[in-house]
């Protein structure tokens, strides 16, 4: 799904109105119904609901929401900011609501009343139309709402937060939930914004998505529909050669677990065969834990010192648990220089690269690098002030290096050499556990070996990793799940997505 800017969504709005011969007021009603559908499923009738509405269409949504909630028996107290004129749809919904209940006007800060405890708050002050710093009466209301302990539900976006770029001012609603219309907005993917958005949820308001076909966006959201289209059938007349042969160069004394996690994940995601090149002391561990893997044994017991023969493999992954011994660094350099096909490069291999930036030119084009934020900082040779700067540095690096950067974290960003970014839709905080990244490296390398393009292998891999993590969390809990659980639950992904 494309991620559109506020202006592009407005364009899609107009397209929908024209295509369906409906008014903007009718579309507003649909948005209100979608919000209320979510809201009534997740809250109780018991508490009074205070709805704060601005002068624009976000406020119009709020007023329409208030009408719908009253009709469903909720106790609702609506407020409208009247520091200037209202948009026509906002005004239309205000006169409708005023026939049902008293609506308190807020013209200046003096009109603000004390907000009690133990109510629910719906924030419909400002939406995607935000175009300047929030000050005056809007800022005063936002501060007052934020100062209470009440649960806050933001309509479309938390008021004061720009949809498409980071806010610089202070007056922003800190919502517990953001119920966003039709598609996620770019700002929902930035970790610094979690304090404002809380948990976010997409509700369908029936915009006609074919109207977005010609709209260009550098950002997209990898959801289940995208994956269904991407995943390929396993042919009936197949053999293990059909599904690729992976070489994994991994492990060092004390970190053999990383090699086993990645190797097992390679097999659990459908690759035909995996050969793991490990230091000598890891043989018993890896062979016992994964009898299905073939071993290539390094002459050194503790670290990898020799590059095995790389001919005949469909994909090569390097880095998990490797350590950064100078001999191991030499192996990475030799691999980079001698490889033509894209590699998967993770963990220690990324840190070795960060210490030897002149090797970057040897990385085969379209290789997949999977840094977590700290590894990206090392690679970039700088500290990032915020998640916006981090994302944009990843974009700059992916373009310059002509590689795919998988910037890991919640909503992992898969950044293409073109600069296009695909945010992932699966996963949960239970994935923040030791070894989880090793599992991801295995999965991506496996898909690459099976003939998926590097771009698809990276997106599929990240999605499947998160999907397995979600399945694991349902049984083991977020806190209780460990990296090997992610591997064990990988088949759930194929059960749901394989043809
Ligand atoms: N798909 C869509 O686009 C739909 C949008 N709808 C709603 O419409 C909203 C967008 O509505 P609008 O474009 O009217 O904009 P808003 O309601 O977000 O803002 C209203 C007005 O506030 C003014 N404003 C901007 N920044 C301000 C600031 N810092 N302080 C004070 N005033 C400020 C602007 O001039 C704008 O006209 C969406 O967020 C959504 O809630 C829904 O009604 C229906 C469908
Ligand atoms: N809060 C989170 N929500 C969703 N996924 C997360 C979260 N935190 C981490 N992850 C995922 O877990 C994995 C962690 O990888 P990494 O940091 O390399 O771990 P390790 O080095 O321990 O293997 C990544 O795929 C990342 O996207
Ligand atoms: K809002």
Brief characterization of the structure:
The protein has 499 residues and is an alpha/beta fold. Helices cover 40% and strands 15% of the residues.
Any overview of this molecule?
- By secondary structure, this protein is of the alpha/beta class.
- The protein has two domains: 6-216, 3-Layer(aba) Sandwich (Rossmann fold), CATH 3.40.50.10260; 227-497, Ribokinase (UDP-N-acetylmuramoyl-L-alanine:D-glutamate ligase), CATH 3.40.1190.
- Helix content is 40%, strand content 15%.
- The protein is built from 17 helices and 17 strands.
- The chain has helices at residues 6-20, 24-42, 57-71, 88-98, 136-146, 194-197, 224-230, 256-268, 283-289, 326-338, 347-355, 373-380, 387-401, 436-449, 454-476, 483-488, 490-497, and strands at 49-53, 76-81, 104-106, 120-124, 151-155, 177-181, 199-203, 219-222, 245-249, 273-279, 294-298, 315-318, 344-345, 368-369, 404-407, 413-415, 421-424.
- A ten-stranded mixed β-sheet has the order 8-17-16-15-14-13-12-9-10-11, sandwiched between helices.
- Bound molecules: ligand NAX, adenosine-5'-diphosphate and potassium ion (K).
- Residues 58, 123-127, 154-157, 159 line the site of potassium ion.
- Residues 9-10, 13, 27-28, 31, 54-61, 87, 126-134, 138, 155-156, 181-182, 205, 207 line the site of ligand NAX.
């Amino acid at each position: 799904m494309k991620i559109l800017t506020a202006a592009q969504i407005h364009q899609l709005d107009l397209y929908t109105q024209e295509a369906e011969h409906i008014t903007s007021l009718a579309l507003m009603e649909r948005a209100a119904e979608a919000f209320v559908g979510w809201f009534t499923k997740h809250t109780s009738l018991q508490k009074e609901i205070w709805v704060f509405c601005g002068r624009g269409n976000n406020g119009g949504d709020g007023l329409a929401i208030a009408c719908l909630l009253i009709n469903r028996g909720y106790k609702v107290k609506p407020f409208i900011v009247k520091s200037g004129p209202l948009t026509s749809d906002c005004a239309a919904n205000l006169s409708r609501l005023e026939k049902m209940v008293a609506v308190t006007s807020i013209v200046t800060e003096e009109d603000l009343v004390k907000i009690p405890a133990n109510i629910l708050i719906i924030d419909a002050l400002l939406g995607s139309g935000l175009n300047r710093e929030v000050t005056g009466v809007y800022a005063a209301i936002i501060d007052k709402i934020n100062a209470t302990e009440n649960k806050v539900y933001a309509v479309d976006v938390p008021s004061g937060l720009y949809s498409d770029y980071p806010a610089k001012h202070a007056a922003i609603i800190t919502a517990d939930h953001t119920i966003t219309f039709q598609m996620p907005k770019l700002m929902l993917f930035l970790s610094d914004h979690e304090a404002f958005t809380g948990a976010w949820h997409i509700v369908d308001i029936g915009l006609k998505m074919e109207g977005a076909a010609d709209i260009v966006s550098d950002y997209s959201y990898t959801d289940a529909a995208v994956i269904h289209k991407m995943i390929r059938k396993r042919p009936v007349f197949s053999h293990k050669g059909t599904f690729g042969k992976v070489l994994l160069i991994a492990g060092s004394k004390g970190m053999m677990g990383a090699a086993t996690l990645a190797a097992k994940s390679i097999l659990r995601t459908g690759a035909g065969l995996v050969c793991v090149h490990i230091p000598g002391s890891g043989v018993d561990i890896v062979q016992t834990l994964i009898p299905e893997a073939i071993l290539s044994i390094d002459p050194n017991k503790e670290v990898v010192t020799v590059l095995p023969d790389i001919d005949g493999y469909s994909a090569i992954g390097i880095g998990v648990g490797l350590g950064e011994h100078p001999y191991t660094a030499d192996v990475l350099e030799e691999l980079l220089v001698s490889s033509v096909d894209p590699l998967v490069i993770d963990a220690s291999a990324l840190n070795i690269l960060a210490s030897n930036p002149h090797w970057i030119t040897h990385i085969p084009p379209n290789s997949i690098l999977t840094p977590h934020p700290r590894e990206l900082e090392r690679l970039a040779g700088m500290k990032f002030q915020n998640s916006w700067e981090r994302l944009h540095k990843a974009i700059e690096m992916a373009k310059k290096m002509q590689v795919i950067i998988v910037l890991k974290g919640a909503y992992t960003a898969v950044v293409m050499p073109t600069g296009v970014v695909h945010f992932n839709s699966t996963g949960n905080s239970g994935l923040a556990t030791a070894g989880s990244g090793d599992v991801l490296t295995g999965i991506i390398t496996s898909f690459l070996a099976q003939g998926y393009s590097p771009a698809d292998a990276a997106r599929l891999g990240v999605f499947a990793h998160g999907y397995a993590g979600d399945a694991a969390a349902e049984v083991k809990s977020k806190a209780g799940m460990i990296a090997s659980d992610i591997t064990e639950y990988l088949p759930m992904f194929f059960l749901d997505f394989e043809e």
